[in-house]
Known about the structure:
14-stranded mixed beta sheet, 7-stranded mixed beta sheet
Amino acid sequence: METEEKVLQSAQNEPSTRSNKNAQSVNAVKAEKLAQEGASAQSGAAPKGVNMAALLHEKAVIMPFKKAIVFPCDRDNFQRVSYTWFTFKQLDEEIDRFARGLLKIGIKRGTRTVLMLKPSLEFFAVTFALFKIGAVVVFVDPGIGIPNLGKCLAEAQPEAFIGITKAHIARVLFRWASETIKISVTLGPKLFWGGHKLEKLRIENAEPVPVELFPPDEMGAIFFTSGSTGVSKGAVYTHGILTSQVRFIQETYNFTHDDIDVATFPLFALFDVCLGMTCVVPDMDATKPAQADPVKLMEAIENNAATVMFGSPALVNTLSRWGSKTGRKIVSVKKVISCGAPARNDVLERFHQMLPNDAEIFTPYGATEALPVSSIGSREILGETRKITSIGGGTCVGLPNEHVTVKIIKITDDPIENWTESLILKTGEIGEIAVKGPIVTREYYKRPEATKLAKITDMDKTSIWHRMGDLGRFDEKGRLWFCGRKAHRVTTLKGALFTIPCEAIFNEHPKVFRTALVGVGNPGEQNPVICVELESKNNSIDFSKIKAELLELGAKFEHTKDIKTFLLHDAFPVDIRHNAKIGREKLAIWATEQLKKTNN
């Protein structure tokens, strides 16, 4: 039997095709090596090198003809959808084609490259091509707005920009990172900005590009936060963090190669193919999940016999309401992953009515800077923790991931330079959630002040704790409970009030869709205000009666008895990524203006 070195040398000396025996031997050797790397990582030993593209390549060797990505491409005169797809072998080949093309124009290891492509087959191929050659992929959500995009890209200092035509038009007109971007690649019509067309970079010869394994601490990507509670910041992802996320997600949810996922969030879909799952992209605007068409979501699920679905709480709410109205059932899905905001018990209960009896809805907890931190299933929520949530105990987010250390520390808005045990609060006390582990980012790119506020150096002087900016507590079973954002706490003369525990009391009203606690006035002497969004938008509803009933509800609990101000709002502002996080900063400004008008 030939050694790995001989096989590799032989393959390099012969015409390269993926069908010849030597190429297959090379792939088999690589797959075995990658599997050994994975086993080493799972046993706790530090891997010598990692790469997201290596995980995908391994799946292409093991199951070359299984569908990797399925994408809706057209509709006929009867509006029946047709699909296009990549098998894992085809995706692996496309990655190599684009990797060679990108290398040819100067995008290489360490090149910071902005990627602004819509969900598509090309999005997957180009993303993994960039990972494969070691470029630093810069992901920015276009929904954060033109001014914020400019700031984010100025901070990232990208050297290359790969995007659709509209993205390039905005880049040129608003001079995004104009001093640093030297290489531009366009998918679609290329107008006056020069550069390269993406299709021209697709090298016809699919000769394999060697999978290089990078040090786990080498930067692999920059993911900008949604900016829902402030300015977007670029979280630095190392190759080690990326591959650890893949492993932890598989361990947490026990996904298998037989699973088919309808992924409504493109970045999560990248994990699918690394895990050997088929990723189905539904016909929807990924930037507006709350507005997704339930008919088209069901179409994607049923046409592909999906076993898994990923969706934000807003999307799950939309689909579950449609299901309740129409009586439609989802028969194939066994696992639903919903994250981006706290799970609403009524939505979980309603969605369960659409699912098979053995299905479960999981709600992982985490953030761009650290994911996954913990997870909980809907059966535990509906069977046990919802009762505590409904009386103001917070939202249970489950037991921490076994690879992650989670602590609750004293609440402060000041930076904490070094970790000490004196920071830790007792079980049951509400404080800030701090996490440490292989999926925790160490810094924000080019944002030293933000890094200083969010990171704590551990006592070993090498590990980093991330301050989640979330408030929470532990119960006696070791489960973590989320109590709201630290920035959203309302500080009154009688003490601090936390959003999730307070809002849960008023959300129990049958005519209330959701509420939001905000503070009006100076910190320390704020007036707590509950903004109310009703289930029905009927203008004939008597809000004064509802307000009186909300006062009665609040009077029953110590933490809400002093809340006396309620304001009706038509539709809460929400985050652009998941359409689920309430924009309480905007609501606080609105509430202040409303109270001024009332007082005048």
